[in-house]
Amino acid sequence: MARTPLLQLSEISLTYGGDPIFDGLSLNVQPGDRVALVGRNGSGKSTLMKVMAGFVEPDRGEIVLSAGVSTGYMEQDPDLAGFETLGDFARDGLELGEDYRVDMAAEGLKFDPDRPVATASGGERRRAALARLLAQAPELMLLDEPTNHLDIEAIGWLEEHLSQTRAGFVLISHDRAFLRRLTKATLWIDRGAVRRQERGFEGFEEWREATWSAEDDARHKLDRKIKAEARWAVEGISARRKRNQGRVRALADLRAERSSQIRRQGTAAMAFDSGTTSGKRVVEARGISKAFGDKVILRPFDLRIQRGDRIAFVGPNGAGKTTLIKMLTGEIAPDEGTVQMGTNLDIAVFDQARAALNPDQTLWESLTGDPDMRVSGRADQVMVRGQPKHVVAYLKDFLFDDAQARAPVRSLSGGEKARLLLARLMARPSNLLVMDEPTNDLDVETLDLLQDLLGEYDGTVLLVSHDRDFIDRVADTTIAMEGDGRATVYAGGWSDYQAQRGETPPEEPVASAPRAAGAASAPAKSAKGGLSFTERHRLEELPALIARLEAEIAKLTEFMADPQLFATSPAKFNKASMALSERQAVLADAEEEWMGLEEKAAG
Predict the structure, then answer these.
(1) Where are the beta strands (DSSP E) in 78-210?
(2) Alpha-carbon span 84 to 61, nearest angstrom
(3) What is the bridge-based pairing of β-strands 281-292 and 295-306?
(4) Where do Low complexity bias regions lie (predicted)?
């Protein structure tokens, strides 16, 4: 017997003064659904969720909520006006005797219900809004980036709570581990269309690539058909004009179909420039400690950071992660101990508070108003890694369009603000990157690119993040700060840290970083031979990379096999030849890496 959907959207269309965001959109949310809502930044995820919640009225279409079904919506910027404390806001609307639900959620999400709204941070306000929704326990929860501003412990609590609920939920999140754990279906927004797959986020990237591959094949077939029909029209249309007007009209229809297809948004053209090489020793801290009044942030701690290290700092909010980084980079002084900075350091900082962005400036002004980026005498150009570039062209590298260049920063989504901050950061050479929560609000594709860029970066990276998957992909060392002033160094990323943490006795003295004179613990061994988590992940992804390279090499070889290519288009031939050589070299390296990891896994 078919279940009655909790929510039905039928033929929804919505336009904000330009191209349609959605046109003819239909979807259902079933009882007990656990749905990941995914798509590029700016694709309309939050807008669609607001439509589902009834906060945005579509231009056309019908929204049907089944009789008696309650819904709850957690937005990214909750309005707490009219409430004195966070607890007052979170308890609003609850029946007598249900206050305990807010207290339980407040403990798990780590906020004080007695905190006055007037002094609460943005993160505390969001946690109160999330607690309010969980306490109300609606049959359908609409959650827009619920893990932003949560530390890893609170994310774990929320994961466990949502895994046990009987309610249906639709979830927007950049946190891969969170999505993989919780979701059983995926809604994918892509160029105004919404597709559904009855698999959780675990299968999303495979599904996306297969969909795009099929789309590319169909487009290529259409292009070939258009070329064939156009050749027929040019060569013999005058002799067959009267008999074949239908075919001519069909050619026009084919061309109209091709021009109406919406091109996929490209990947941001991001790049880091490591600039001058720093000294081998980047930072050496000896016996540093810090306290604010009676609160101990850091007990005596030693650490040596060397060029090329990728160090992640993890722990609860307020444990002192950012404070420790500021001591290591010389921004604040320790109470005791010494910090010796290395030579030739150029430090670039990604600030999670987005303090470098003025909400009243336009995107144009945000770049040209930076003295480190300004080109002398030119109001329309910025200095990008030592070279002048037109400000609009540089913004386009980060997927902003012409109209957004003159828009205020406040009009941007969270993901767009993160991209603008990355644009500022990447314009200048650096050899020490401080990344404080860089993953918040970024879409999966941009996270993938950022991960790859950090992997290729020649300098040193200090990373604060609550994104477990991102830490696993980037970090080779993890420093755990657990709120008691004690910092402990572990080899590897988040999963390696989890595997090792039970082996460290509470009374063991703090160790130095892995490259510091043999003080490191060995990376945790995985179930597969002697591979660390990072190596195991690399071994799993290499076959797909090798297959893709082989397919690209085959296509390039086929393209260059045309005997007329060199004579008719030598530039294309030379470009294809260079691309072929490059891919062959990358393929050889990938195969060699795969063989080495397989041998290591075999013991």
Answers:
(1) 140-144, 168-172, 185-190, 193-197
(2) 39
(3) antiparallel
(4) 511-529
pTM summary value: 0.68
The backbone torsions φ and ψ at residue 385, rounded to the nearest 5 degrees and listed phi first, read 50, 45
Question: At CA 322, angle to CA 317 and CA 324, rounded to 5?
Answer: 115
Residue among 439, 437, 420, 438 nearest 176 (CA):
439
Binning pLDDT at 50, 70 and 90, where does residue 232 land?
Answer: low
- pLDDT score of 377 more than 80: no
Query: Distance between CA 38 and CA 526 in Å, rounded?
Result: 31
Sign of CA dihedral 165, 169, 173, 179: positive
Q: Which CATH superfamily is domain 281-503 in?
A: P-loop containing nucleotide triphosphate hydrolases (3.40.50.300)
Taking the mean position of all CA atoms in its chain, how far away is CA 601?
30
DSSP 3-state percent helix, strand, coil across the chain (nearest 5):
40, 20, 35
Q: Rounded distance, CA 481 to CA 320, Å? A: 7
Beta strands at 432-436 and 487-491: parallel, antiparallel or unpaired: unpaired
Phi, psi of 23, deg, nearest 5? -145, 115
Q: How far apart are CA 284 and CA 282, in angstroms?
A: 7
Query: pLDDT digit string (tens) for 558-570?
Result: 777 877 777 777 7
Share of residues in the chain with pLDDT > 70 (%): 83
Residue 405's closest CA among 385, 381, 388? 381
Vertex 150: Cα angle to 420 and 455 (nearest 5): 50
- Fold of the 533-601 domain: Helix Hairpins (1.10.287)
- Both tokens of residue 11? 């033929």
402 class by beta-carbon count within 10 Å (0-12 exposed, 13-18 middle, 19+ buried): exposed
Q: Where do we find the tokens 């991209």?
A: 419
The domains of the chain are located at: 7-206, 208-260, 281-503, 533-601
**CATH superfamily name and code, 7-206:** P-loop containing nucleotide triphosphate hydrolases (3.40.50.300)
Segments of 154-294 assigned E as strands: 168-172, 185-190, 193-197, 281-292
